[in-house]
Each structure stands twice: as C-alpha cells, then as structure tokens.
Task: structure prediction
Amino acid sequence: MTSRARQQQPYHVLYGGFRPEAALTRPHRPVRAHHCSMDLDKAREFVRSNHRAVMLTRYPDGRPQTSPVTVGCDKDGYIVISSRETAVKTRNLRENPQVVLTVMTDAFYGEWMQIEGIAHVVSLPDAMEPLVQYYRDISGEHPDWDDYRAVMIKDKRVIIRVEPTRAGPNYHG
Result:
C-alpha cells in the first residue's frame, strides 16, 4: 500500500481494534467482573476525593483523543465533567459515548483509577443546575452565582455525565 493510500485509510482498518459503527449498534450490556475489577462505589468515592483526570474518547475514525479534565461525582453516582459544546471531546462523545477516565491524586504519582463508562452529554438549559452542583461539589460556594451562570451560557458549557461500567485496578503492580 502506498503512503498516500495508507493515509486515507481509517485508523481501525489499518490497525484493527475499535470500530465506531459497531459501538453504536451493539446493545449496552452489563460488564461482568474480572480479576482487576473493583466495586463501582469505591471508584465513586475515589472520584469524590480526587478531581484530576485524563479523559479518553475516540474520533469517528477510531483514533484516540485525550483531554485533561476535572471530575466530580453527583448524588446519582454519575462521574461528571464540565466541557464546552464545541469541544472535540463533546463532539466525539455524541458520536460514540464510550469513555475511559484515568483519575489520579493531586500528587500525580500514587493512587489512581481507571473508570470505563457510557457518557451522556447534557446541554443548556438542562445543564445549568448540574453545572452549579458540579462547581459546589468540587470547589464549594461561588462568590457570584449570577456571574457563574452567565459565563456558563457565554461559554456554551455542557455537563458530561458518565455512567461507570467498570473500574480498576484494585491493586498496584
């Protein structure tokens, strides 16, 4: 295959693996536990105390896309992330809702956790109160909530709610 022909092939054709169209047509099935799974409630507790993460989404051609994000956990047990309507990760999640988060402590080295899940993107105006709660849960009270709400509208913010399906590791190697 010529170099030019190779560049025009989708990532999954060249390297195998993820097929975006398959993820959209397969029904969502609960994940069975395996040797490195951990209780999802333990994962949620870890997120409530540790807000730094890297989010992995997939471009439509299957290539990985990563973003540093700030994560929280809402009262319903969803992992929550604030983003913009125009962000690449948001567009990717609308095409393929499968997501992987690597959540770590502020120290970076030390405990960490990988959480896999299905993302639901909530746009404004429905996202406004979840965005307020996201801020409160991570940072406490804002000095001017009217200003915060105005900035959320101006920036076209969304809330990404991740339903965890698998988490681990429950050991360090």
Summary: The CA atoms of residues 100 and 112 lie 13 Å apart. Strands lie at 52-58, 64-73, 79-84, 98-104, 112-122, 157-168. Residues 11-36 have pLDDT under 50 and may be disordered. Helices lie at 3-8, 11-15, 20-25, 40-49, 88-95, 128-139, 145-154.
